[in-house]
Amino acid sequence: MIMHRLALGALLCLSAFPAAAQDAAPPAPAAPIAAPAPRPATVRVSILTSEGPIVLELEKERAPITTNNFLRYIDAKRFDNATFYRAVAVPGAPELGLVQGGIKFDPKKVFPSIAHEPTSKTGLKHLDGTISMGRNAPGTAAGDFFIVVGDMSYMDANPSAPGDNAGYAAFGHVVEGMDVVKKILAAPRSPTLGEGIMKGQMLAAPIRIVSARRVVAAKPAAPKPANP
After folding, report:
1. In sequence order, what are the residues at sequence separation of 6 or more whose Cβ sits closer than 8 angstroms to the Cβ of residue 148?
2. pTM
């Protein structure tokens, strides 16, 4: 009986060797990590105001119609000497809201209006620092824009809502100069200027846009030749 148990124990020990050998085998090579999707193409512009610069990153790939329209005004220098003329604060939270600027419907500067690019198509959102187009009916946006301070997701398109549910055309965001945007939002408003719902939202002293230009990326410096 003792011999039988010893033989069984030896058999169990021998049968364990193949498993131990398998455990010691080198691990299979890891599957290659997929490369991240390329970032959508953007372009930067700088709006120099009398209160300081605001640098924007525009979504030329995700919102091409709206971005190209904005760049058309910049390249034609039609925002030069325009203004930020309107500031709308959220009731009860005056640090939140929007500031509006542009050509203020100047017939000498306006280009034809553009097709509407809703956020449901572009995938963009009206988050803090987003730049978007002012409009009346969809398809009437031209040369006036606004920048939001805080999350204004109610401005996004909502196809399930009744009436005009197309929202506003977001097309970029502020990357530098939100302090300037907030300063404009806090600027004094006239109690009498403006018509309809805009009465009391117009700045008493509009903030001048000195210039608006594309930001040209600096070229990398050429390597210096090695010493002989």
Report:
1. 97, 98, 126, 127, 128, 129, 130, 132, 155
2. 0.80
Whether 33 has a pLDDT exceeding 90, the answer reads: no
Cα 91 to its chain centre, rounded Å, is: 25
Name the burial class of residue 56, with classes exposed (0-12), middle (13-18) and buried (19+) by CB atoms within 10 angstroms of its CB. Answer: buried
pLDDT at 53 over 50: yes
Token pair recorded at residue 215: 């930001």
Percent of the chain with pLDDT over 70: 81
Q: What is the mean pLDDT of residues 45-67?
A: 98
In this structure, the strands spanning 144-149 and 93-102 are antiparallel
Encode burial over 132-146: b for 16+ CB neighbours within 10 A, e otherwise. Answer: bbbbeebeebbbbbb
Q: Quick one: which of 189, 185, 144 has its CA closest to 168?
A: 144
pLDDT at 171 over 60: yes
Contacts of 33 (CB under 8 A, 6+ apart): none
The C-alpha atoms of residue 105 and residue 134 are separated, in whole angstroms, by: 11
Residue 177, classified by CB atoms within 10 Å of its CB into exposed (0-12), middle (13-18) or buried (19+), is buried
Give the model confidence (pLDDT) of 174-192 as tens digits. Answer: 999 999 999 999 999 999 9
Phi, psi angles (nearest 5°) of residue 211: -160, 160
